[in-house]
Amino acid sequence: MDALTTNDTPVALMSEKAVWSSLENVKDPEIPVLSVIDMGIIYKVEVSDSSVECTITMTPTFVGCPAIDIMKKSVHDEVAKLGFATVHVIVDFENTWTSDRMSEEAKRKLEKFGLAPPAVISGELTEEQLNNVRCPHCGSTDTTLRSAFGSTLCRAIRFCFACKQGFEQFKPV
Amino acid sequence: MNNEALKDLLYKMADDALIIGHRNSEWTGIGPMLEEDLAFSSMAQDKIGHAKALYQILHEILGEPEPDKVAFLREENRFKCCQFVELPIGEYDFSLVRQFLFDHAEAVRYDMLTSSSFQPLALLAKKVKGEIKYHVMHADTFLKQLGTGNEESHARMQSALNYAMPYALGIFEKGPFENELIQQGVFAGEEAAKNKWLEKIAPVLQAAGLQLPEISDDKIIYGGRKGFHSEYLKPLLDEMCEVVRLDPVAEW
């Protein structure tokens, strides 16, 4: 069923699958190449039996993320386009977001965008994972952490000794 | 579970985070170098985010007013922050030493709270713990660099530490519900937190060549948790709340 491109009745449109695919259109305002799906911040979509109501549950990358309210509204507005009478968007910490929730595809997109992707941390962050970061400009791993804090909460500043350029990394958390 | 005990714990944590967040933000634009300007600004944003999340639990689960109301419209004596976070930013040496002592204390507290019987707090703690790691890393790096830098940097760090320590110990002031929180598995208690904190800071201080000053119990600066604050909190609140108080019901 390709619900979004046919003229099906509204009821047919209201599947969970349609909601998930519509959310591909909602981008992270701070990293516009990534959707909320790529980021792994949406973790539950529930459509009521009668298909009039949809509830989406999401969680922020950082507790103080200033973009969360905008994303919450964008998620609401995008899903509302599918024709639900009511769309609820819940933001909670039930499922802790870690950078491991980012898809491989997302990490490729990040690197292409010029942001080094986070290393997989599976649990505890170690010093090791903060080293060995590949420069998104030249591909060298001869890089160093300049500051754990960058232009947004989720970014760190690094420097590449090979191409002598600074770059940003999405922090492993 | 006793709601008053939960409120007391959450308010002191949230107020600490809000006030230190405000103080950290005072480095925005005047940090000693760009990276440090960004670091203190980012940590400010994190802390205020943590405060908001805690006020949100107070509001949604424990029936307290909305986060903006409790942050901006409470009187000074209703705040439960420790006096340590109220102190002005001073020179950069003091701000760094405070960041080191305070963030290690927060890291320990949130780590303990990941196993809290109060589920909403345990979930938040799990998340916040991952973020605070970066704050601690920042503090440790600079403490070691400046502690072992040159004679002047070492002397400044040691004197900031001597000044900060009686206040830092005040972080662990016990509240009226201490035993209840421990018995109900909400929080393992201030005494346990303080001991873990001392264990964490000792090796870093040693690597930085700094001496932990001996502080007798009667020199520890308590009071904040009970609403008794230093002379510095009121002016901070006046500034932070100035715009909101002009028109508390304005729509933004």
What does this structure look like?
The complex is a heterodimer of chains A (173) and B (252). With 173 residues, chain A is of the alpha/beta class. Mean pLDDT of chain A is 87; it is low at 1-9. Chain A has a four-stranded mixed β-sheet. Chain A folds into two domains: 10-91, GMP Synthetase, Chain A, domain 3 (2-Layer Sandwich), CATH 3.30.300; 104-170, no CATH class. Chain A has helices at residues 10-13, 16-22, 36-39, 68-80, 104-113, 127-130, and strands spanning 27-28, 31-35, 42-47, 53-58, 86-91, 115-116, 143-147, 155-160, 165-170. Chain B has 252 residues and is mainly α. Chain B has one domain (3-246): Ferritin, CATH 1.20.1260. Chain B has nine helices and no strands. Chain B has helices spanning 3-25, 34-60, 67-72, 92-113, 119-147, 151-169, 178-183, 190-207, 233-246. The model of chain B has no long low-confidence stretch (mean pLDDT 97). The interface between A and B is medium-sized, with 22 and 26 residues.
What would a concise description of this structure say?
By secondary structure, chain A is an alpha/beta fold.
Secondary structure elements and their pairing?
The complex is a heterodimer of chains A (173) and B (252).
Chain A: H1 10-13, H2 16-22, E1 27-28, E2 31-35, H3 36-39, E3 42-47, E4 53-58, H4 68-80, E5 86-91, H5 104-113, E6 115-116, H6 127-130, E7 143-147, E8 155-160, E9 165-170
Parallel strand pairs in A: 4-5, 6-9
Antiparallel strand pairs in A: 1-2, 3-4, 7-8, 8-9
Chain B: H1 3-25, H2 34-60, H3 67-72, H4 92-113, H5 119-147, H6 151-169, H7 178-183, H8 190-207, H9 233-246
Kindly provide the radius of gyration of chain B, computed on alpha-carbon positions and rounded to a whole number of angstroms.
18 Å
Structural class of chain B: mainly alpha
Which strand-content bin applies to the residues of chain A?
25-35%
- State the shape of chain B: globular
The biggest beta sheet of chain A is recorded as:
4 strands, mixed
Kindly estimate the percentage of residues of chain B that lie in beta strands according to DSSP: under 5%
CATH fold group of the largest domain in chain A = GMP Synthetase, Chain A, domain 3
Helix count, DSSP H or I runs of 4 or more residues of chain A: 6
Instruction: Give a quick account of the main beta sheet of chain B: strands, pairing sense, barrel closure.
Output: none
Instruction: Please identify which CATH superfamily of the largest domain in chain A we are dealing with.
Output: Fe-S cluster assembly (FSCA)
Strand order in space, largest sheet of chain A: 6-9-8-7
Please indicate the count of domains of chain B: 1
CATH secondary-structure class of the largest domain in chain A = Alpha Beta
Low-confidence stretches of chain A: 1-9
State the oligomer: heterodimer
Largest interface: A-B, 22 and 26 residues
Radius of gyration of chain A: 18 Å
CATH architecture of chain B: Up-down Bundle
